[in-house]
């Protein structure tokens, strides 16, 4: 009897250890959390996963940053320093967005005095839906119009009201300001922790920098950048497996076969074509009774665009990240056609903070129709920094050559084995 009791005690201890271990694994495996944005319809083993408040991961970051605090000013643009600086400011940005009041339109000229005090300035490569930006911060914007997209943000201390203001530039060129409930004490503390360095805007130098865009960050300048080699990634077994997993093709029923110089991976009505020139083309041709389709939870209207962006980001990241070298994939645009209940989304590569532009198209393009990802095209690329930094035409000369149009530096990938940075007119 005593041996039996000892055996029961040992079994009980093992069950407790097993329970604790499984609980720890569930909590620690955060990579699975975003999957709740997907639902699977039909299929023998289909299951629905829902969440009252999905977690959205950032799909884009600023390309320019400027901070003014008690230690002076600090600026960075088109480099890894922007991302590093932004990570230290995200709490402040999220709080300002979450507590922003009713936006009021203002003249851009009236904002110049804000740059004489303490501030945080962020600029994006492309306009970002402000509700997507706040969603990445885990906050809501009840007083902001759903259609608002921003490409510049300014958070500044308002010493007259002893508060903190949020200013944003929308995609149509309008400038709007909002009062926030951010504590001016916490704001000054955060900006005061930032390091100092060279930082200046075009409007502060008068006739020396005759740009049409007064907010061009001219210091620090971008004097030299690394060239990169471009490698097209084709239909290796590893790539086929990664793409099949990214698009959730059934591993037990999908099969692949060559078609001309391309390779086809198909799972009934859904397929991936891996082209000879390094593109992955996903197509959902419809559904038959009981067939699985990849649906996006809440993907039927403009108010649900956060879920659509996140679902597309997950697919793009799963397809690209396992083979990435220097590049990362960033969200670059979304439009909605209410007549078709259809979203169009784009993502682009960025290398060390500098965008990559293609001769045609984007790094990844998505169609989400009726809440279902139906069409995707992804450029299967890998980029490696090579050689020594090459000089880049200074912004003053580049802007003069472009008749003062706003410019952005970007790697130009025209399908050759190497890509270099040149100035482009801002899209």
Which key features would you list for this structure?
7-stranded antiparallel beta sheet; alpha+beta; 26 strands; 427 residues; 13-stranded mixed beta sheet; globular
Shape: globular
Report the mean per-residue pLDDT as an integer: 81
User: Structural class per helix/strand content?
Assistant: alpha+beta
Strand content: 35-45%
Q: Count all strands and give the number.
A: 26
List the uncertain runs: 18-53
C-alpha end-to-end distance: 81 Å
Count helical runs: 8
Helix content estimate: 10-25%
**For the CA atoms, what is the radius of gyration?**
25 Å
Q: Report the biggest beta sheet as strand number plus sense, adding barrel if it closes.
A: 13 strands, mixed
TL;DR?
The protein has helices at 2-28, 80-87, 90-98, 130-136, 184-192, 237-246, 305-320, 395-401, and strands at residues 38-41, 64-69, 72-77, 104-105, 119-129, 149-158, 163-170, 175-179, 200-201, 217-219, 224-225, 228-232, 255-259, 262-267, 270-274, 279-284, 293-296, 327-337, 342-351, 354-358, 364-369, 372-379, 381-385, 390-391, 407-413, 418-425.
Could you characterize the architecture of this molecule?
The chain is an alpha+beta fold. The chain is built from eight helices and 26 strands. The strands form five sheets. Strands 12, 13, 14, 15, 16, 18, 19, 20, 21, 22, 23, 25 and 26 form a 13-stranded mixed β-sheet that branches. It has a seven-stranded antiparallel β-sheet with strand order 3-2-5-6-7-8-4. A two-stranded antiparallel sheet has the order 1-17. The longest helix has 27 residues, at 2-28. The termini are far apart. Mean pLDDT is 81; it is low at 18-53.
